[in-house]
Design brief:
Elements: E1 8-10, E2 28-31, H1 41-53, E3 55-59, H2 73-85, E4 90-94, E5 97-100, E6 103-109, H3 115-132, E7 136-139, H4 153-164, E8 167-171, H5 172-182, H6 186-191, E9 198-202
Parallel strand pairs: 1-2, 2-3, 3-4, 4-7, 7-8, 8-9
Antiparallel strand pairs: 5-6
């Protein structure tokens, strides 16, 4: 799968009806499929107009690829129908989990960075790609707690991408947040990634608040 070129913008309902009047259009729009699979009728016509005129990239929130729960087949069926209907080629998700005992939290929760988890994710990536008939893109997520792990984050991310064959959505801001919170050099982290595995980037960032008043 080729990488995603150009500059995209996250599509939000708040400015859905303003897109047509944009003086400058992004190269593509990124959407969370969970927010659009059951699009309200009052938004559907405008949403479908945008989809028809722009490339769309899907970035999911609830696949829960790191969970020990079974994958939600009903969600995967709805997702595949949605991707096929609008001919969306690119679908990304987070290297995290969001469900526990089949209850969806919609939170991006941290997973153990272990060889067993790499194997677990690899098996799920294989199933998902065969089910959706698309390659999966995985994003490095932020985490504020480190579950029992036997490797560093960069070793884990590289292992997941290498073993699963998935592409990487590199969230640059997430690298810098994790580097700050967990005391590693974010630039060395990025330098240690296989650049050929990167499909596209997230570059929106946090704000550093000054202590000065």
């Amino acid at each position: 799968m080729e990488g995603i070129s150009g500059c995209g913008l996250g599509l939000r309902r708040e400015f859905l009806f303003d897109v047509e009047n944009y003086p400058t259009k992004p190269d593509w729009f990124e959407i969370a499929p969970e927010n659009w699979i059951k699009t309200p009728k009052k938004l559907l016509k405008e949403f479908e107009r945008i989809v028809a005129e722009h490339e769309i990239v899907c970035h999911g929130l609830s696949l829960s690829i790191g969970s020990l729960d079974d994958l939600d087949l009903n969600f995967l069926k709805d997702l595949k129908t949605f991707l096929d209907k609008y001919e969306i080629k690119h679908y990304s998700e987070h290297i995290s989990f969001s469900s526990l005992e089949n209850v969806q939290t919609y939170e991006l929760l941290p997973i153990p960075m272990t060889k067993d988890m790499i194997k677990h994710i690899t098996e799920r990536v294989d199933f998902i790609q065969n089910f959706l008939k698309r390659e999966l893109i995985l994003e490095n997520a932020t985490y504020y707690y480190v579950p029992q792990s036997d490797m560093s984050e960069i070793e884990f991310i590289n292992g997941v991408i290498k073993e699963s064959g998935a592409k990487l959505l590199l969230d640059v801001n997430n690298v810098f947040v994790n580097g700050h919170n967990h005391n590693f050099d974010p630039k060395k982290f990025i330098d240690s990634l296989d650049k050929d595995s990167i499909s596209y980037y997230h570059v929106a960032g946090h704000l550093e608040q000054s202590d000065e008043i």
